[in-house]
Amino acid sequence: MIKTIGVLTSGGDAPGMNAAIRAVTRAAIAQGLQVKAIYRGYKGLIDGEVKSFTSQDVSGIIQRGGTILKSARCMEFMTPEGRKQAHKVIQKEKIDALVVIGGDGTFTGGRLFAQEYDIPVIGLPGTIDNDLWGTDATIGYDTSLGTITECIDKLRDTATSHERVFLVEVMGRDAGFLTLNAAIAGGCEAAIIPERAQVKEQIEEAIGSGKRKTKSSSIVLVQEHAVEGGAATVAKMIEKIHPEFSTRVTVLGHLQRGGSPSAYDRILASRMGVAAVQALLDGQRNVMVGIQNDDIVLIPLSKAIHQKKDVKEDSWQALLTLSI
C-alpha cells in the first residue's frame, strides 16, 4: 500500500516543472498520502536531501520557471553503489513510490532503480526538447518555443536593417522539434536539424531563394548538434559559398529554458501531475504520463526512452514551401 510519495526533478530545468511539483503534491494530499520532496534530483536522493511537503509548500509556484526542488545531473546514481545508497534513503524516509520529473536521463535512472529495488516509479516528461516518444508534448516545450520565436522576431528587425544573414543556434539535444517549429513560427528561411542534415543543400536553397526573391536578409536556425560546431560552422560555410553575404551568429543558450511557463505548460503539468498520483493508486509502475490528442496516456518507460520520436514530415514541407 502506498502511503508516501517522493517527488524530484532531474536533468535540465524546464518551465512548468513547478506546476508539476504542485500538482503531484496537492493530488497526493487530496488522496490522504504524504509527500516527500527530494532536492537536487538523484544526487539529493543519495545525499538524503528530503523534506516533507504540505500544500502550503507549493503555494504560489505555478507561475514560476525553473524548479523549486533544484536539479542536478548525477553520474553516481548511474552506478549500483549510488543506487544502493539512494535506496537506503528511500527506506529511511519510508517512501513507497517515486514521481520523477525530467527527460531521457531521468527516466533511464528511474527505470534502473525501479527494476533493482521494486519501487514504483512514474515519470513526468519535463524537457524543452519534446523528444520523448509516446507524448505529443513535454512540459516546458511550449514555453521554450515561444521564447525562441520572440527572439527571432527581435533579430528579424536587425537582420533586415543591416541586410545580414543571421544564424541562430537553438537547443534540442539530438532532436529538431524546437528548431523546426520555431523556424516555421518565426518565418525563417531554413532549419538545420539532425533529422534533415543536408546542410549545404539547405543553405544553398535558403540563400539562393533569398537572392532570387531579392531578399536582403535571412534567418537560419541551427539545432545545436545538427552539425559539429553548431551555428558557427554553418556561418563559415555560408561565407565560403557566398562571400557577398555578411553573417552573424546568435547562440540563445540557456535563455531558452527560463521564464514563466505558458498557460499550456501549466495546464499540461497540472493534468500530468494529478494523473501520476492516480496511476500509482491504480497500481501502475514504471510508466511515463503522456498526452496524445489531448488525452492523458500511460507509456512504459522503456518505450519512452528507447523508441525514436520523429519530426512531422508535413511540418518540414511547410517550412520549405513558405521559405521562398
What does it look like?
This protein is α/β, with parallel strands linked by helices. It folds into two domains: 183 residues, Rossmann fold; 117 residues, Phosphofructokinase domain (Rossmann fold). Helices cover 44% and strands 18% of the residues. The chain has eleven helices and eleven strands. The strands form two sheets. It has a seven-stranded mixed beta sheet, sandwiched between helices. A four-stranded parallel beta sheet has the order 7-8-6-9, sandwiched between helices. β7, α7 and β8 form a beta-alpha-beta unit. The longest helix is centred in the middle third of the chain and has 22 residues. The protein is elongated, with a radius of gyration of 22 Å. The mean pLDDT is 93.
Short summary:
With 324 residues, the chain is of the alpha/beta class. Helices cover 44% and strands 18% of the residues.
Instruction: State the separation between the terminal residues, measured CA to CA.
Output: 60 Å
Low-confidence stretches: none
Backbone shape? elongated
What is the residue-mean pLDDT, rounded to a whole number?
Answer: 93
Based on DSSP secondary structure assignment, what is the total number of beta strands?
11
In the sheet with the most strands, the strands line up as: 3-2-1-4-5-10-11
The count of domains is 2
Biggest sheet details: 7 strands, mixed
Helix content: 40-55%
Structural class: alpha/beta
What is the number of helical segments per DSSP (H or I, 4+ residues)?
Answer: 11
Which class of the largest domain in CATH terms?
Alpha Beta
Radius of gyration: 22 Å
Name given to the CATH architecture of the largest domain: 3-Layer(aba) Sandwich
CATH T-level topology of the largest domain: Rossmann fold
Indicate the proportion of strand residues: 15-25%
Order of helices and strands: EHEHEHEHEHEHEHEHEHEEHH
